Amino acid sequence: MPRIVLVIEYDGANYVGWQVQPNGVAVQQVIGGALFELTGERIDLHASGRTDSGVHARAQVAHFDTESRIPPDKFAFALNTRLPADIRIKGSFSLQGEGENEFHSRFSVKKKHYRYAVLNTVHASAFYAGRALHIYNKLDIEKLNAAAARFIGTHDFAAFKAAGSKVATTVRTVYSSEWRREGDLICYYVSGSGFLYNMVRIMVGTMLRVGLGYDDASIIDAALNDPRRTNAGDTAPAHALTLWRVEYDEFDTDEVLQENALL
């Protein structure tokens, strides 16, 4: 049975997150419905991970098995005619070779990348209202990066997970962590082996206090050395966070997006 891989872009504003929930419409639910219309099959759709309510994706990855005879690369076109405008399939394909059906969109992940966007201007923007957190007080990007650098490495991130969330281990590895100025935006880019529930948003909330001068960057060290939730900052809002990129041994979503662009 062929295993189809999807690279998915979505605006999370109208959804309760990726995973099907009893309290609203989820991205997984909408794509699953479109797949049923297309194939007549009740398909199990597995993603690289959950995104929270209101969080966006530039490159979410999901896979499913199907008996459909539709060519793998045509699923993107067929699904996009059935999906709302705020969900787009940016690429669809199958992996060739003996390990095709061993690939798993979640368990095969090597690196996940997120971006958090902050609009640092006196006045808010109509264009960035659903994409960036507006902060009108001046942020010090050097202080932000001094704080961001402290996250790199393998640490216990228990202080940076939502209170009450349960996981087998709170140890994660962060490979890169930096803030970049992009016009009026100051964007945080982070990559890691995986992320806890609300982890990136709490990291951002903690760093923003440093960037605004309320705390010293050493607060990060304290929260990593004594990993209690009370030692980290507030949870930054969801609407400015985007699942940016996912890397596997088999492919990189940035390569898929580039291949599907009309250059």
Primary descriptors:
single chain, 263 residues, alpha+beta, Alpha-Beta Plaits, 2 domains, ten-stranded mixed beta sheet, 6 helices, 10 strands, 26% strand, globular
What do you see in this structure?
With 263 residues, the protein is α+β, with helices and mostly antiparallel strands. It folds into two domains: 3-97 and 250-259, Pseudouridine synthase I, catalytic domain, N-terminal subdomain (Alpha-Beta Plaits, 2-Layer Sandwich), CATH 3.30.70.580; 111-243, Pseudouridine synthase I, catalytic domain, C-terminal subdomain (Alpha-Beta Plaits, 2-Layer Sandwich), CATH 3.30.70. The protein has six helices and ten strands. It has helices at residues 27-39, 75-80, 141-149, 199-211, 218-225, 253-259; strands spanning 3-10, 46-47, 56-65, 87-93, 111-119, 133-134, 153-156, 171-182, 185-192, 241-247. Strands 1, 2, 3, 4, 5, 6, 7, 8, 9 and 10 form a ten-stranded mixed sheet that branches. It is globular and about 60 Å long.
